[in-house]
Amino acid sequence: MFHQRWARQADQLSAAGRIVGDLTDEAEKQKMIESILDRMVNRVWFVGSNEETAPIIEASFHDGLRILDAHLPERPYLFGNRPSYADFGLWGQICNAWTDPTEASMINNTNLNVLDWIQRMY
After folding, report:
1. Which CATH number describes the domain made up of 2-121?
2. What's the pLDDT score for residue 46?
3. Can you give the pLDDT at residue 97?
4. In Å, what is the CA distance from 84 to each residue of 10, 18, 47, 90, 121?
5. Would you say 32 and 20 are in contact if contact means Cβ atoms under 8 Å apart?
């Protein structure tokens, strides 16, 4: 999720804006956004994200979503009719990725069962 959030400018700006929140002083808000971007974007290497690993990270995430999407029509949660620890563990990562524009677009357009599951978990 860290890679997904901080690898692309659209996601970076969206996340930084959410972190800063609803400050009324626009100059102060922009200063904080720039500080967050500098801090976080420069740390993607720490989680193993780079030009070589980015396609692997993204393919793995998308493969996981595809598998989960195929699994969910048979049951509302991973193991049946009630959420389990597994649902909550996956949901935290997937829901956070869903708040970023790139992954939200992909989930909303191609993983509709995952989208239903995310919303059901709220």
Report:
1. 1.20.1050
2. 87
3. 94
4. 33, 29, 27, 10, 11
5. yes
